[in-house]
Amino acid sequence: MSTRYYAEPQIAWSPGPAQPAARPVAAATEALPEGDGDGIAFTAPSVTEKCRVGAFATQRAGSEEAAPVGHSRAIKDHPLQKPVLSGVKPYFEKDGITLYCGDCLEVMRSLVDASIGCVLTDPPYCSGGSLEAQKNTKAQGLRSATVASADFVWFAADNMGTAGLTFLLRSVLLEARRLLLPNRSAFVFTDWRMVPNLAPALESSGLRYRNLLVWDKQNAGLGVGFKPAHELVMEFTNGVTEYQAQNGQNVLRVPRVHASEKEHGAQKPVALLSKILQVACPAGETVIDPFMGSGSTIDAARDLGYRAIGIDLSERNCEIAARRLSQQLLPFAAPTQPERSAP
User: Fold this and answer.
1) What total number of domains does the chain contain?
2) Which range marks the domain in which residue 133 is found?
3) Helix axes 296-304, 315-327, angle to 10 degrees
4) Is this model's pTM higher than 0.70 or not?
């Protein structure tokens, strides 16, 4: 018996604790009944939103009975089913790799529940200013023409305030909780300044704060005294994590990308990202990076044989990632996992 997964905008529901019976959607402008699922009231969804909602109603081929639709909306019959998007056009797509240029939240909301094996992302840290005021008022001393120019970038230039970044990343992890298969992890890069603010906020998404990984860059950066030689990766899980190796460590020693090889200011080594994926993501599953940058996470996933989805708001970053990934595309194959140590 086969199962179909595609956008079919025929039913809608309120995502509250008590689920009403499914009802037909009469018109594209009709409002969903208000609910309090995850603290968000849905009132007037767009056509794209209704297509996304419809994608969660699976129907058995050859049967008129639709699968039950509940608050979790998890797809259980085919946990490794390739994600299905509705109304979102890929920027690049080939051999299991898909890139999107746009708002990561909108793209993530169009993905099928329980379809992702690992979230691995490196958002801007927004910790450059020593004082909060230095981060969120930089534009006040600049001419309007400068702020409006293509050279002035708000989020990517590390100018977003802590509250704004916290709100954004929590929203991303709320979507990640919905997308992750059971017993999987989401990894978020950051630095020591932001952990006290981000860790409890991201855990409030419903994922458990599982570990704090340290990336030992093996040489110090600029500065005096105790010069920075590491960055951090927060791990959040949705259950009893099913690690693929028992010999992983939470200190990852990988040299940083040499300046001459960088295509992005915060580019992470593919070897570093590969170490995380090999421990956290089972073979045959899909990796997603909502803040793709130049595509290092997608590159690592591709080299290991995973399917991968990369998202970035910057068209320049998407262009770099697409060019990088199209240069040496490998045939899709199951990734090679690290050897399990003897119990």
Assistant:
1) 2
2) 116-327
3) 30
4) no
